[in-house]
From TrEMBL:
Pfam families: DUF4185 (PF13810). It comes from Pseudonocardia acidicola. Residues 12-324 form the DUF4185 domain. This is DUF4185 domain-containing protein. It comes from the Bacteria.
C-alpha cells in the first residue's frame, strides 16, 4: 500500500480565478445526468484566503470527466456568466427559521435518475448545526431548490449532520453520517431511492436484542472522532473514505456491503496529517488536511481524492487538491 501522492491543486490562483473562486474547500463530486462532473464547495471567497469579498456557500464547479486521471479540469460554474454563484438563496448572518445562520455547508451529493440531490448543513459557526436539509437539481447541477426535507441538528443524538450516501443495486440509498464536531463515530441509514425526500422512509441500522437489523434505533457502527465522509461504489466494492480527525489522517475502507463490520473491514491510511514544516505532498503528508472525497472514475488501483487544506493561522492555503492512491490490496482483505 502506497501513500497518496498529489496530482495538483484544484482551486486557487491559476486554477479557479475566472470563476471568482480564490479560497474554498470541500469539493464533493458526482456525475451529473448529462455526464459532467459536478463538484460542490463550501465557504468560498474571491481572494486566495479565508475572508474578504465574495463570501458564498455552497458553490458548484463543473468538470470534464476525461481529465480525472491527470487532475480535474473545470469547464464552468453554476450561475449566470462564469462567476460561481451561491446556489442557495440566503444571506450569511441572516435569520432563517428563527435561527441565525452564518453559512450552509455541503456534505455530499448523489444522482438518482435525472435529478441530483445535495445534503447540506445549516450552521451558526463551525460545528453548530441548526438543521440539515436536502436540495434538488433537475438541470444537471446548474440550479438548486429546497425540497422541504429537513432534520433537526440533534437528530439521532447529533449523528445525522455530516453525511455521505451512495446507491446500492437493491433500490436503496445507503448513508453513513456523523456529527460536525469531529468527535463522534458513524451511524448507518438507508432509504428507498424513490423516497429519498420522505423522512419517514429513512431507517436506521442498529443493534438490539442480540442482533443487528434495519429499523432498530441507530447504533454507532464505528467509534472514533470523524469528519468528512465519502461512500462510493468502486469496481463493485463499497469504498468509504473518511477524515479520521482523532488520528489526524484520511483513511479508506473496503467493504462487501454498507452493513459490513467496520471494525474488521480492510482499512488503510492514505494521507497523514503533519505540521507545516514537515509537509511532503509526494509522500502523503499534508498539514491541516480534511475532506477526502472520491472522484468519479476512480478505480481501486487509481483512487482519486479531493482533499482540503486550511492554514488556520494565516488563512492561506485554503484550497482543494487532488491526490491519488493505490488501494487495490484492500479488496483482498475486505470484510
Amino acid at each position: 500500500m502506497t501513500a497518496a501522492t498529489k496530482i495538483k491543486d484544484l482551486t486557487g490562483p491559476g486554477r479557479t480565478d475566472r470563476f471568482g473562486v480564490g479560497g474554498t474547500d470541500l469539493g464533493t463530486t458526482a456525475v451529473a445526468p448529462d455526464g459532467r462532473l459536478v463538484s460542490v464547495f463550501g465557504d468560498t471567497f474571491e481572494e486566495a484566503r479565508v475572508g474578504g469579498p465574495g463570501w458564498r456557500s455552497p458553490v458548484v464547479l463543473f468538470g470534464d470527466p476525461a481529465t480525472t486521471a491527470t487532475g480535474i479540469e473545470w469547464t464552468g460554474s453554476a450561475g449566470p456568466g462564469t462567476y460561481a454563484h451561491q446556489v442557495l438563496d440566503y444571506h450569511h448572518g441572516s435569520v432563517l427559521g428563527g435561527r441565525r445562520v452564518s453559512t450552509v455547508l455541503p456534505t455530499d451529493l448523489i444522482t438518482v435518475g435525472g435529478e441530483m440531490y445535495l445534503h447540506v448543513m445549516v450552521c451558526e459557526g463551525l460545528g453548530n448545526v441548526h438543521w440539515t436539509e436536502v436540495l434538488r437539481s433537475a438541470d444537471n447541477g446548474e440550479s438548486w431548490e429546497r425540497t422541504g426535507v429537513a432534520w433537526p441538528g440533534d437528530h439521532h443524538d447529533g449523528l445525522f449532520q455530516m453525511l455521505t450516501w451512495a446507491r446500492g443495486d437493491d433500490g436503496h440509498v445507503y448513508a453513513f453520517s456523523t456529527g460536525f464536531q469531529r468527535d463522534k463515530g458513524l451511524v448507518l441509514q438507508r432509504v428507498p431511492e424513490d423516497r429519498l425526500t420522505d423522512p419517514a422512509a429513512w431507517e436506521s441500522w442498529g443493534f438490539r436484542d442480540g442482533h443487528w437489523a434495519w429499523g432498530n434505533p441507530p447504533t454507532v457502527a464505528l467509534t472514533g472522532a470523524y469528519g468528512e465522509l465519502c461512500l462510493r461504489r468502486v469496481a463493485n466494492r463499497w469504498v468509504l473514505a473518511l477524515f479520521d480527525a482523532g488520528g489526524y489522517r484520511i483513511d479508506v475502507l473496503s467493504l462487501d456491503a454498507p452493513t459490513s463490520d467496520l471494525y474488521r473491514s480492510a482499512r488503510a491510511t492514505v494521507l497523514h496529517g503533519t505540521s507545516w514544516e514537515d509537509e511532503d505532498h509526494a509522500r502523503g503528508r499534508v498539514a491541516q488536511l480534511y475532506g477526502g472525497y472520491i472522484v468519479p472514475g476512480s478505480t481501486l488501483d487509481d483512487l482519486h481524492l479531493v482533499v482540503s487544506q486550511w492554514n488556520t493561522a494565516t488563512n492561506w492555503p485554503y484550497r482543494a487538491m487532488q491526490f491519488r492512491a493505490d488501494v487495490s490490496r484492500l479488496a483482498a482483505h475486505a470484510a
